[in-house]
Amino acid sequence: MLCRQSCSPWLMCKIMGKLQSKIKFSTSKCRHEYVEETSPVQAVQQYSRAHTDAVTSVAALTPELSVSGGKDKTAVVYNWRSGAMLKKFTGHQREVTKVACAFESNRFFSASRDKTVMMWELHRDSEPSQHFPGHDLVVTGLAVSPDSSQLCTGSRDNTVCQWDIATGECLRRAAISRNLVTHLCWVPAEPYVIQTSEDKTIRIWDSRELQVAHMFPAKQYIQTYCDVSQDGRYCISSSNGFGGEGCEATLWDLRQTRSRVREYKGHFQTIASCVFLPAGLAQTPSIATSSHDSMVKVWNQDSGACLATLCLGGAGPLASLAVGDSSTLLCASFNSGIHILRVKSMKGLELQEVAMF
What we know:
Distance between the termini: 33 Å
Largest sheet: 5 strands, mixed
Number of helices: 1
CATH architecture of the domain at 6-41 and 217-315: 7 Propeller
Strand content: over 45%
CATH topology of the domain at 6-41 and 217-315: Methylamine Dehydrogenase, Chain H
Radius of gyration: 19 Å
Helix content: under 10%
């Protein structure tokens, strides 16, 4: 048994990388126990790279297509099942910070350090079909309404803006002191947008008037990301940190908004992304997190137990997670592109890397 308190993240990943062909993780209590692997390890398929630099954000456009953005200033639509790039979109003057889309649609949005947001159409030319200028600093949050008619954006300029997608008009703009936005997500089938911030808070915005409807109690660390369950009942947020301090994900009940429901602790560094996994993937509701410590973890949503851990040694900080289909996660990294992870639940829950692009 290897105790995480006695081993650095770098050493942990190095050991895990060497033993990957022989071991798997049994992490019901977030303790790393090495168990002999009886099935042969599948080789990781190497596809052509989607980006020439670090990948900052990834999202699922369809059950087989992903959209991603990177430091190379481009957005890319990629068929991760076949390993083929469909189209590369260029237009931003600086790195792409976030991408967002309505699932099963032909359009997506990209935010950038150039202070703008652009809308792209998959089956049109490579020019943006709409521009959304107006922020004074880097745009760090994107959320698309369920009917795809409106867009909310957030920035380090302390503002949240609401846009008409058809016209590109800014409908509303709200500014809150010290509200350096880190992420935005829309609550399914509701007019609410959830936002994380460097001021350590999670806000719920009512998009009908773009006013704060609720603010959860402030956390101890910067909140980096948020996601909402498909039934609209729960929100998960993630924290920055280092050396195991902070570095947790937090579950919030959107019906009982007084305090957090549960925390998930086990990462060594900042958690950059957290997502709810599809229903039925595991026996109980589950969430996944990715961290700057190069690890992806799956957690039992109800008990807080760590169900599986995968270390992507050499990938560097892991920047973004997206659910590809009912058994696949897409994980964006700084050093090695986008990793395709298979979630298996045959004999307990397992994470396996199957390809990268």
